[in-house]
Amino acid sequence: MLSSFGVDIDSVDGFGRITIEGSKDLIKVLQQIELKEWKPEDLLPYTKEGEYYASKYSIYLLKELQDGIHIAHEINISATLDYLNSFEF
Fold first, then answer.
1. What is the pLDDT of residue 12?
2. 51: CB partners within 8 A, 6+ apart
3. I want to staple 10 with a disulfide (CB 3.0 to 4.6 A). Which of 19, 31, 32, 66 is the partner?
């Protein structure tokens, strides 16, 4: 979600904490994320190759099926928004 607003993620550690490049107004970005009406398909263009869900046979599937599997296993918009809503920005 951050990438879709132009925030460059430099690295992610073993605990899922991120390091951000540049000086974006992160509070404003988080507020925009909360307000946007999200669809899982909105995030696919911002998913990097190493982040894409892969299974043993996924390389043999059509791209549309691979996208569906990735959405089912890796994208949880409601949990993300619930988490963001638990804080005040």
1. 87
2. 74
3. 19
- What spatial distance separates the first Cα and last Cα of the chain, rounded to whole Å? 16
DSSP letter, residue 81: H
Backbone angles phi, psi at 2, to 5 degrees: -60, -40
Q: Which helix (H) or strand (E) holds 9?
A: strand 8-12
CA distance 28 to 46: 19
Sign of the dihedral through C-alpha 82, 53, 46, 10:
positive
Give the per-residue SS3 of 23-79: CCCHHHHHHHHHHCCCCHHHHHHHCCHHHCCCCCCHHHCCHHHHHHHHHHHHCCHHH
What pLDDT is recorded for position 13? Answer: 92
Instruction: Report the candidate in 28, 31, 40, 32 with the shortest Cα–Cα distance to residue 77.
Output: 40
Low-confidence ranges of the chain (pLDDT < 70): none
